[in-house]
Every structure is written in C-alpha cells, then in structure tokens.
Fold this sequence. Notes:
Helix content is 34%, strand content 31%. The chain is of the alpha+beta class. It has two domains: 3-176, Jelly Rolls (Sandwich); 181-222. Strands 1, 2, 4, 5, 6, 10, 14 and 17 form an eight-stranded antiparallel beta sheet that branches. Helix 5 (181-200) packs antiparallel against helix 6. The two termini are 22 Å apart. The model has no long low-confidence stretch (mean pLDDT 93).
Amino acid sequence: xxxxxxxxxxxxxxxxxxxxxxxxxxxxxxxxxxxxxxxxxxxxxxxxxxxxxxxxxxxxxxxxxxxxxxxxxxxxxxxxxxxxxxxxxxxxxxxxxxxxxxxxxxxxxxxxxxxxxxxxxxxxxxxxxxxxxxxxxxxxxxxxxxxxxxxxxxxxxxxxxxxxxxxxxxxxxxxxxxxxxxxxxxxxxxxxxxxxxxxxxxxxxxxxxxxxxxxxxxxxxxxxx
Length: 225
Ligand code: NI
C-alpha cells in the first residue's frame, strides 16, 4: 500500500519546525547510506543528535506517533531515528532499496514501511519527486508541505534530481506489528469502515460489535509483539 496522509503536521507546527531547521548543521548524506545506496545518494543530512537537532527530532517524532491515520495504516511497533534531508540543485537519490535491518539506538529495527514527510512546498523546487516502482506503474509523488507518504520498504524507489530550489524532507522507517503489507491493508480498510459506520450511526450496535470483533481477532492472529 502507498498512502499519502495530508497535513500530518499542522500548519502552526510546520512553521516552527521549519524555523528550527535554520539552526541545524548539515553534512553529506552518503555517510548514512548502505554500501549500494551510497553510490547513488546525493543530499545533505542534519545532525539530529545534539542540541537543537535533538529538540527537532523529539518534536517531529511526537507528532508522527500521535497521528491516528498513521497509527492505523502502519500499526507501528517501533520508529527508526528520523533523518532530515536537504537536496539542492543537482542532488537526488538514484534507484535503491532500503536496508531490511537497521541499527536504531542499541537494537536492530526491521524496516517494514518507509515514509517521507515533505517539509518544502512543491512550488519551492523543481524535480525531486519520490518515484516508487509499483506493479504496472511508477507513482511520482511530490507532497504539500506537511504531507507524509507511507510505502513498503521492500520497494525500489528513487528521488528525481532537483533542478531548481531546495527540497527539504524528513524520512524514517517503521517496524510494524503487522509484518505483511496485505494484512496491514486489510486491517486498515476494516478500521476505516468501522470509523465511517460509527460516524453515520445508521448501523446497529451488534453490527459494529461484530466488525470490531473481527478486527481484534485479525490483530490477534497476525500481530507480532
Ligand atoms: Ni530509500
């Protein structure tokens, strides 16, 4: 499943988060890529381990963790450390696949889902689309500032070269309680249906209860804790 979640960062928070970026130090992003990806990665990454960088990291992660749609779509067990990437003219990220296992703190995270949180508005730069190889098509994604796109880490993907301006995004990975994408999608569909039926109130309690029972029992069957 590829899912764009609009305005995951509210406007006021976005303004402050972008202002904070001005206080951060950026270095060559190739240092954090795996051996294969390093050859095609051309961007800059902020130090989020000290001072203002730590504050920035905690603030963005808190907003992501709390977001109800991201929680339902991704069923996060753990988040990776976030990365803040700036891509200038001539930069980009060639076709690559993300490492399956990532060091996060003192433990290893399995990347089930990747996400890109757009921090620049699309009119601030040209090029820089996120392209994901998908059966029968290659979606080319350029979100509004504050939008997040969630996609399977198992895909081959790339960032088109930036030809004008500057592209600022936050990227990260999620280890999900539900390892398989198709199972996660089914649970997301059923949970979305439950939410809309609750809003409509036309459905009887027993129908809602049966739907809820099915969702809970699928979670019991499929979750890894
Ligand atoms: Ni990637």
